[in-house]
User: What shape does this take?
Amino acid sequence: MGMGQKAGSPQYFNEMYDGAAVRPPYQGLEAWARDMPVDLRTLKQGEAEALFRRIGITFAVYGEGGDPDRLIPFDMFPRVFAADEWRKLDRGVKQRARALNAFLADVYGRGEIIRAGRVPAHLVYRNEAYEKAVVGIKPPKGVYSHIVGIDLVRTGPGEFFVLEDNCRTPSGVSYMLENREIMMRMFPQLFRENRIAPVETYPALLRRTLSSVAPAKCDTPPRVVILTPGHYNSAYYEHSFLADMMGVELVEAQDLFVEGDFVWMRTTEGPQRVDVIYRRIDDAFIDPLCFRPDSMLGVPGLMNVYRSGGVALASAPGAGVADDKAIYTFVPEMIRFYLGEEPVLQNVPTWQCARPDDCAHVIANLADLVVKEVHGSGGYGMLVGPRSTKEQIAAFADKIREKPWNYIAQPTLALSTCPTFVEEGVAPRHVDLRPYCLVGEEVQLVPGGLTRVALTEGSLVVNSSQGGGVKDTWVLAE
Amino acid sequence: MRLTVSHETTYRFDPPMRGVVQSLRMTPSVCENQQVLAWAVAAEGAERGAGFRDGAGDWVETITHIGPVDALSVSVTGEVETIDTGGVLKGHRERMPPAAYLEPTRATAPDRALETLARDTVAGIDVGDVLARAHALCDGIEAAIRYTPGQTEHGTTAAEALALGHGVCQDHAHAMIACASVLDIPARYVTGYLFASEEAGGHEASHAWAELFVPDLGWVGFDASNGVCPDGRYIRIGSGADAQEAAPIRGIAQGAGTEALEARVQVDRAAQSQSQSQA
Amino acid sequence: MLSRTAANLFWIGRNIERAETVARLLEVGARNALIPNIGGGFRNEWDAVLQAAGKAEAFKAKYDEPVQRNIESFLFFDQDNPASVASCVEAARENGRIVRTALTGQLWDALNTGYQEMRELKRTERSKLSLSDLTDWTKRHAALVRGAIEDTQLRNDGYDFLYLGFALERGDATARMLDVKYFTLLPEVGYVGSGIDNYQWSTLLRALSSNRSFNWAYGGEVSPGKIVDFLILNRKSPRAIITSAEEAMDHLDRLARGYGRSTEAQTRCRALVGELCELTVSDIFDEGLHEFLTRTINEVAALSDLIHGIYLSGDTR
Assistant: This one.
């Protein structure tokens, strides 16, 4: 079988094989994969797909059209971290989440990091995501970003790089939970034989985190709700899944209204006060009285209640200023400035095309670089130099020259590979990782995350919108 | 100067609305330019709440009307003692970084004409002399956009007003902000009241102007409609990036009804009286 | 419970019941089309089906001839007809998707499977589908949904809203079908008591799946009086108006107990049930069947409005 192609290309770190030897965290999986008959594998793959389809976990890509009920491909081969590897990630992710929150508190407060000259003022104050409406407002417990998703890649045994931070409403956590659920259902013996740390505590931790940031005015057990744009949204499944797992109401803007000092929910028994809103809608659609007046979406007056301390919003409006790709460069600086620590996780070296020197370097070296839009997401509008034709590179260079400030560039990273089931058997495919860090009274991280895998051979793009799949992510217990 | 204000805004809905929510920014700024002797905002029948001071130092509060609502009236009465500071906003506590006022909005986005106007107007004035540049802009805009009521409307942008060559205080303030942004000077929209004697030419008593940030002085007001910096005749209420953000009343009514608005503003001096109404 | 959740549950009930009613009408039409046209001036049976479904105008606006194929398209498949079986089945699934967390896995499965199967049906070549395949499928789907509710849903307020939807829709459908029979199917007073008349009454019973139950209860002889008794006043009949009204009453009472407050909806429903309890067949004929039914249809609509205003709109204080 395809286990022969063990290590794959030597320039990439293979998470399972060190030459011919199996690295310790994967030892429990070698025999399992080797001994699985092809027909059983096909059967299990079909079973997994049926389970996903049945629970309704599907994925729709904005603006791509096509089948809204499309499934994200699930690969059954788990991605594994040893306990000591995870300890480092755990420290690094929490450190970053704390620093990002400190940065937000600062730029909406006194702006010390800007006065100290460590971050340029214009990158913050002229940033699209900077919300003047929250300047001088102290959110409950001083937390702005309550769920921080950190996108990581690995390039060697101890080398992890942060690709990007997500401080608004990182999605995908339902896959982390469902992937585990389905693996446990299909391969219970794997969980008996390996000591895998549980992730199913996440919804309870999320609920506790959200309750912990209830406003001071809330004198009863806080009522938490999830605010969704509605059932047409591509992440609606995740919204309803999380509401269900946390045991909280899933509301749309039309279910909420403002009266007096508070926000209320329309129920069959009359209005009920809402204390914490985990909102999965963009800032622009929260409150037409504050942001987009042309929008009939949103809850009129919500921002006034928030700013007067009557309700908590997770994440805080304006939290996006911390996860901007231009601000990203300064996160290591934030860690030193606010926490007085050295960053545990490295940033990918980044060139800002807004700087003329950087821009010249980028255009001269496009064939070796990955170029991204500063405000882009989802793998759109990016150029992967080594995988592009001369024509594509030339066309992209023109785009950069036209709007240099709109782009940043990074070296093409040698993303690690993880064994993945493919047509011919098992083969190495590139992976990344998104852990979900919770920030409330405490900073917490469940041992796991969402591993995305580029299913096409050689591809480095793991986005689900571009042919990526997902895997269960294991952290072995100490 | 001691001024009294009486300002009543009435909304009528037909058919009645399911509910109305409004965010009010109608309380005078706390600063050395003015001392509030008495001030009351009233909205009969509405639930009031969610009051707070925002990052720019404005007092904001919320009123809600649970329907059916066929009419809603917000009235302001008060008395304020003002002093002339030459337009400089003094002793005003706020947290907003001036640099946050450099990004234009839809209403204040400069087009070619505004860019040209800005650059031509300050030609020859040292980049470091922001105050002189600001005064020049104020004069330039007063000349380029003639004060003419009824030519522009609420949604008119700075670029449109300049192209038209006519406008009211809102258009002048927007144009000031747009030109300031061309020159990288932080600028914002300010709302308030103006006491104008009959012979001074019938400006609305409910007024608006621009503030530009001048290093060492701080925020300085410029009223291009009258070609002056705000003095003792001005009462400052609130600010924002443009007219919409700074609006004294931002509201939403839920329902299919049509809305009719009527406003009466009267600003008097302790002894004599001056009044106007606008619809 | 969120008012929007309650509203969607209520509409799951209404939509499923409506899909079934339309399927039953189609079944009746198909059956009648097999009987030779014996009454002069007697209208096309398919026309009658459209009248009963309250869709004669909408049909004419889009199709030419009231022939079986067009009627099938319109009443079963047509996306533009909000009362077609397909529209109702899809709407019920959408209602379910919106309130996914308020449904058990089985109920969601039943709604979702019905939706997936409907997509299959739409893709199937029409010549391969007989009308009875379509109507049997619809009744089976409705039964599956009801079974899933009955077997698995928590007996909370959501359960009551589901059943209120079923009960009001059914009460309304029975009243409308009776009324249409009386006014539309029968063109002239001279036909009353004739063979055609009796034939049509039994058709109506068939449409309400009540043909055999009626025979058991009344010994076979069809008369307008017996039918009116059976479809309006007899609690043994699952589709009698009184049965639906009492079911609605039960669920409204449960809501009032659970919420600790009784509203105008309970009062109004109680008055309706009370009136139906006291009525006799001759009272109804004295008032005039059409007048009585019109009044009842309005009463059910008023009750539905009250339920909407009090529980579903979210405007309750």
Observations:
- The mean pLDDT of chain C is 87.
- Residues 155-317 of chain C form one domain.
- Chain C is about 75% helix and 0% strand.
